[in-house]
Amino acid sequence: MTAIIIGAGASGLACAVRLKQNMPECEVIVLERMDTPGKKILATGNGRCNFSNLCAKHSNIVVDFFNGLGLKERADEEGRLYPYSNQASTVLDTLIESCEKSGVEIITDCTVTAIDRDLCVTTDCGMYMADCIVVACGGTAQKNLGSNGSGYDLLKSIGHKITPICPALVQLTSPSKYPRALKGQRVKCNMTVLLDGESVESEYGEVLFADYGLSGIVTMNLSHIVSENFASPDPKKCSVSLDLIPDMSFEEVLDYLNRFGNLKGILGRKMSDIIIKRTDGDIQSMAKVAKSWQLIINGTRGYDFAQITEGGADLNDFDDFESKKVKGVYACGEVLDRQFPCGGFNLNFAFYSGIAVADKIAGKQ
What we know:
Layout: E1 2-6, H1 10-22, E2 27-31, H2 39-43, E3 52-53, H3 59-68, E4 73-75, E5 80-83, H4 88-102, E6 105-107, E7 112-115, E8 120-123, E9 126-129, E10 132-135, H5 150-156, E11 166-168, E12 172-173, H6 178-181, E13 186-195, E14 198-209, E15 213-215, H7 217-231, E16 238-243, H8 250-260, H9 264-267, H10 269-279, H11 283-291, E17 293-296, E18 299-300, E19 308-310, E20 318-319, E21 322-323, E22 329-331, H12 345-361
Parallel strand pairs: 1-2, 1-10, 2-6, 10-22
Antiparallel strand pairs: 3-5, 4-5, 7-8, 8-9, 11-19, 12-15, 12-18, 13-14, 13-16, 14-15, 16-17, 20-21
Helix pairs in contact: 1-4, 1-12, 3-12, 8-11, 10-11
């Protein structure tokens, strides 16, 4: 049996390793467009590879898979799982070494240009006939790390629907001068996304101010709303409201200001000074800003900075990751329309779906 896997990222490499575990005699060939495999893995988790989360569905399967390859994990207080070394290279090295030991062939600098219903794979370095094809070439986020959206075209060519895509888990941009003035400052707050003044969704978490606008986990998790809005033909006016002191009511903040005259003891000098400057020191206005500071949002930083792509191959066209359009074609990872919040959930899905595809091919599901 010959299995062709398109893409040597998280899902593709996990699928290749599991296929060889399930069927040692299977010929497994991984075709990778970039010059080296797993570039995006190295960039995840700020170079530490937050590969799963204790709260993620199927995390036990992912952890058991890596434990079986000799990789030990550690969890932080949020349940995020990292390799014990705290180095993303450990995850990639483990996968590559497992591929090498089991006889998986990884061909780099190889661009797939077409697949067909006869399970023929056409590339710029030759043609391959397969018994099964696994499309694992990611979405559109961070093209320089390998994801250029080519998987969507491959699946569309055999009849699959691709849902609308846009950048997700991405920073927000703002024309306001205040994020730039607060560059590097972090605050735990409630963020609410407003479209035409109406509240759409809120989340509590850390916001990081930057010269372009806003970053941080809560920003990234809510960014899909902003992306969807600006991707629409008639986008609404977008802003975010920040409750900088969610542990105190408006009245409590007002009492504090009446007593001390500023918020340095709560928010620090820099933030407090900016609030004073913005409100001309009016106590009532300062309390309002502290509890609902609105900033105009004019977009996101786009695919180049997005962690993942929202949208993708419609899951209704698959049965447990196997195509309903063409028997023997499978898809896993980010190319599918399946997204999760920050914290290792998306990478967990990439690894799990690759494992699940391999198990399905081997008839172990």
